[in-house]
Every structure is written in C-alpha cells, then in structure tokens.
Design a protein that fits this description.
alpha/beta, binds 2-phosphoglycolic acid, Rossmann fold, 10 strands
Length: 266
C-alpha cells in the first residue's frame, strides 16, 4: 500500500486528479470506478476544470459507481446517480450511456446485483477505482464485518453511516438504510485503486486501514492485499499514523526517481 500525505485537502485532490489524468491520457477508454460523498468533490472539480481546459477528456471512458441507495430511482435527488450527474457527469464530456450504477430501483435487487457484476465483467473490469472511506472504515457501503471476498449485493447500513450521511437529507425526508454496493472482492479486482481521505474524522479509520491487521472489522484494511493501491491523505486524515515521516520520505524518493509517475507503485 502506498501512502501519500499532502498538506491540504486541495493538494490531495490535485494529486488524485493527476492519477486520473495520467490514466485517461494513457488509456482514453479506461473503465473508472467512482465514489460519492463529500471527499471526492474537490477532485471532481479539478477534473471538470482540466476537462474544460482540454487537458483531459472522458469521451471514450466508462464509469461504474460503487453503490446506490436501495429503492431510490435515478431521478431522485438523493440518489447517487443524481449526485454524480450534478457533481461530475453533466459537467464533463462523458457519454452518459457509459456511466453505470447498480439498478437500485429494480424489483429484484439480488438480480440487479448480479447484473452489475456481469456488466462490469463485460466492460473488462475497472482500470482505476476511486474510494472514500467511512469513519468506521467502510469502502463503498461495505460496512464492518463485510466479507473481504464479497461481491455486489444488498447491504444494511450501520447506524453510524446513517448518522454520518444524515447531513445530506432534510429532517422529514426518507433516508434509506439499505444499499446495493460493489463487494470488497469486486473492488479488489480493480487494476489500480486510489483511496482519498481528508479531515480528522477519518484519522482513526486510516490508521486501522494502513497499520492495523487485515480484518473485516475495518473493510478498508483489505487494500493491504492489493498490489497497486494508493491512499492519498491530507495532514489531518494522516494525523493518527505512527510514522508519517516515513511515507513522506518514500514519496520524496519516488518523486526524485520518477517525477511524473505518482502513485504507480505501492
Ligand atoms: P464522505 O464519505 O466522503 O462524505 O466522508 C466517504 C464514505 O463514506 O465512503
């Protein structure tokens, strides 16, 4: 696992944007795995700006989002499809017929989960997967104690996740407690993974993911098994790490060796 520590959330987002830019320049038809939440917003703004300036294009790319709230249709303002349209897709040159979400409005969610796995496979798998992390260590909606080999399926959100996400819902609004999510096994098949985390609320989950044992109690710890996973942090999310100086040292050495290849090794 490679750990990159930046001073600010904006710098962390720019670093992640560099990884996406390099991916798309090298392989314009890349399959990107995308995430919702507050954390990726700065990254998405950076990608939108680069696209506007003509520095990168999503014209040939496809995307697969990690998860979707069960029971919310694509036009529901709280759906992750709606979120992604607003935050990214409507503002870049992507062909929206190639942007995919689990069909959480399906009357048969188990079948929708299997269909999503098949669609992913047919697309050739994810080249670059973006992840956020929950304060409880979840990735996608794989809450603690999810099987590390899990595939796309229905998951019950924990009380903590529901509380963490309540800020996106108004007081009297229905807030789903179930979601369709890619599994940890699905996520680990991505050829490359970037996890972005900022702010002090993520510091403990990051410490457990990077330094702790690989355990279903902290789903993001499964990334230790991945040969090309990069964890990009701001200084606050890195705040509980035992030896941040080590990661800064490694990063400096790698930059000196290969200044344009950020995050390639892990
Ligand atoms: P956040 O969510 O970016 O809104 O903190 C991350 C997550 O729960 O995966």
């Amino acid at each position: 696992m490679r750990v990159v520590i930046k001073d600010t959330p904006a710098e962390a987002a720019r670093y992640a944007a560099d990884v996406f830019t390099r991916q798309l320049l090298g392989q314009p038809g890349s399959v990107l795995g995308l995430a919702t939440g507050s954390t990726p917003l700065l990254l998405y703004e950076e990608l939108i700006e680069r696209c506007r300036l003509g520095a990168l294009s999503f014209r040939e790319a496809s995307t697969f989002n990690l998860d979707e709230y069960l029971g919310l249709g694509a036009t529901h303002p709280q759906s992750y499809r709606y979120f992604m349209d607003q935050a990214l897709f409507d503002r870049i040159d992507i062909d929206k017929t190639r942007t995919h979400f689990p069909d959480a409005a399906s009357p048969d969610p188990q079948k929708a989960a299997r269909d999503y796995e098949r669609c992913l496979r047919d697309a050739g798998g994810v080249d670059l997967q973006l992840l956020g992390i929950g304060a409880n260590g979840h990735i996608g909606f794989n809450e603690p104690y999810s099987s590390l080999g899990s595939r796309t399926r229905v998951k019950t959100l924990t009380a903590q996740t529901v509380a963490d996400n309540a800020r996106f819902f108004s007081e009297d609004e229905f807030q789903p407690q179930l979601a369709l999510t890619m599994g940890i096994g699905t996520i680990l098949e991505a050829r490359r993974i970037v996890l972005l985390a900022t702010g002090p609320a993520k510091a403990s989950a990051i410490k457990q993911s990077v330094e702790g044992p690989i355990t279903a109690k902290c789903p993001a710890s499964a990334l230790q098994l991945h040969p090309a996973a990069t964890v990009i942090l701001d200084i606050e999310a890195a705040g509980a790490l035992e030896d941040p100086a080590l990661f800064r040292h490694i990063e400096k050495q790698d930059q000196a060796l290969s200044p344009s290849a950020n995050g390639v090794a892990s």
